[in-house]
Amino acid sequence: MKKSRISVAVDLLVFTIEDNRLKLLMVRREEEPYKDRLALPGVFVGEEEDLDAAAKRGILEEAGLKDIYFEQLYTWGGIDRDPRMRIISVSYMALVPLEQLNYSAGARTTEVLLLDVEELLRGEAEEPAFDHKEIIRYARWRLMNKVEYTKIAFHFLPEEFTLPELQRVYEILLGKPLYKANFRKKIADLVEETDRYTEGDAHRPSKYYRLKEQEKNV
Amino acid sequence: MKKSRISVAVDLLVFTIEDNRLKLLMVRREEEPYKDRLALPGVFVGEEEDLDAAAKRGILEEAGLKDIYFEQLYTWGGIDRDPRMRIISVSYMALVPLEQLNYSAGARTTEVLLLDVEELLRGEAEEPAFDHKEIIRYARWRLMNKVEYTKIAFHFLPEEFTLPELQRVYEILLGKPLYKANFRKKIADLVEETDRYTEGDAHRPSKYYRLKEQEKNV
DNA sequence: CGAATAGTGTCTATAAGACAGTATATC
DNA sequence: GATATACTGTCTTATAGACACTATTCG
């Protein structure tokens, strides 16, 4: 039976929303190749480690995050992805509310930063290492798609949120403005109201909602 | 840098439609483990081989097929998937019109057969080896989903087809009957008519259509 | 009261669903 | 003409889109 010299890694795409922009967590490489360049955080998969477990570990080690939503995206297996050796990379997408993000808690000493995804894809930011720009482009496309037919957008928000906040998340992910009344009709069945309201703003307060329990796993 | 003992394989889900049923190509294993059990065809990924290239090679070697539609599905990485060793398996789904399927042409001497997917998933057929039943269930789910929002169904038919044939493919994949008039309205913009008709049937002939050129890559 | 944002009612346009009818082959 | 399947017209229902209006807070 074959014993391959192929290494398997997971690359992590940790998305969040900051200042009404979609942001992605990236790290600055401290080693060759691509030293000092921006790259997706990632870890090698242990010989006795589930793929999902490796992703979970990576999210904890690189972003200091536990118990957040993640899903497998795609597996990248080009021959020359990494100049050192053959690496198959299984990409995972994780979504997290900004409040929960605490990337200084990562075990690694690398510099960790949040990049504006649209700027990055338009080439207005630093060019990412490896084939990571392509991976990011794919993830952004999948995210945009899934917003339309899943409840994925909710993962960017805390347990309780206002409908204007939720609408803003949808607008950012879809890249276009939505009509308030229509948006509320569409998501009405997914959410349930709380009895809390926003306070202190110089305008009408907004009611807090949460995702209905029975909608969480549908 | 780590040198892992993880092997990478691709598992192939070659779907076709026969006798108005969704069928899947499977092989009978000639070696332990799971000797004589049904399994998905698959190949190990070479150290100097692209992932997609490995899938393409597998489709050729195991099913004798060239130039057919395929796409990556999901990567399975549980620890105990294979009792011999750690294998990460990247699954690929391929779709082929029955007319084109010629599985006796596979290089391997293994027995190759077409299984009814619904029967298999309901447990009315032989139980597949490894975690292949789970993979099949996932692929069937993805296929069903993609029918609704992509043109994936066309890959089960030859270049030219009648609308009743196309409708039958949709019905098989969706698992429910569709209204003729409504179906035709929905796909009207995707197809263009030819000047050929079915012949010899004891009823009104049916016009042949083909997928519009500009729709092929959308 | 003005500014700012939250929230609702309703009209219109488009798509999905259901059904009934007509058309054209073979035997 | 009987049978079998291909094809079309149209009514109904549901959903998406657009816009105007009312509501409530702070300063």
Number of domains of chain A: 2
The poorly predicted ranges of chain A are none
Specify the CATH architecture of the largest domain in chain A: Alpha-Beta Complex
Number of strands of chain A: 10
Question: What share of residues of chain A is helical?
Answer: 25-40%
CATH superfamily of the largest domain in chain A: Nucleoside Triphosphate Pyrophosphohydrolase
Task: Kindly name the structural category of chain A.
Answer: alpha+beta
Q: What's the level 1 CATH class of the largest domain in chain A?
A: Alpha Beta
CATH topology of the largest domain in chain A: Nucleoside Triphosphate Pyrophosphohydrolase
What spatial form of chain A do the alpha-carbon principal axes imply? elongated
Task: Report the C-alpha radius of gyration of chain A, rounded.
Answer: 19 Å
Strand content of chain A: 25-35%
Tell me about the largest β-sheet of chain A: 7 strands, mixed
Order of helices and strands of chain A: EEEEHEEEHHEHHEE
Question: What does this protein look like?
Answer:
The structure is a homodimer of 218-residue chains. With 218 residues, chain A is of the alpha+beta class. Chain A has two domains: 7-149, Nucleoside Triphosphate Pyrophosphohydrolase, CATH 3.90.79; 157-215, Arc Repressor Mutant, subunit A (Orthogonal Bundle), CATH 1.10.10. Chain A is 26% helix and 28% strand. Chain A is built from five helices and ten strands, in the order ββββαβββααβααββ. Chain A has helices at residues 51-63, 117-121, 132-149, 163-174, 180-187, and strands at residues 7-18, 21-28, 38-39, 42-44, 69-76, 87-95, 112-116, 160-162, 191-197, 207-211. In chain A, the strands form two sheets. In chain A, strands 1, 2, 3, 4, 5, 6 and 7 form a seven-stranded mixed sheet that branches. The first copy, chain A, has a three-stranded antiparallel sheet with strand order 8-10-9. The mean pLDDT of chain A is 93. The interface between A and B is medium-sized, with 30 and 30 residues. Chain A binds a DNA duplex (27 and 27 nucleotides) through helix 5.
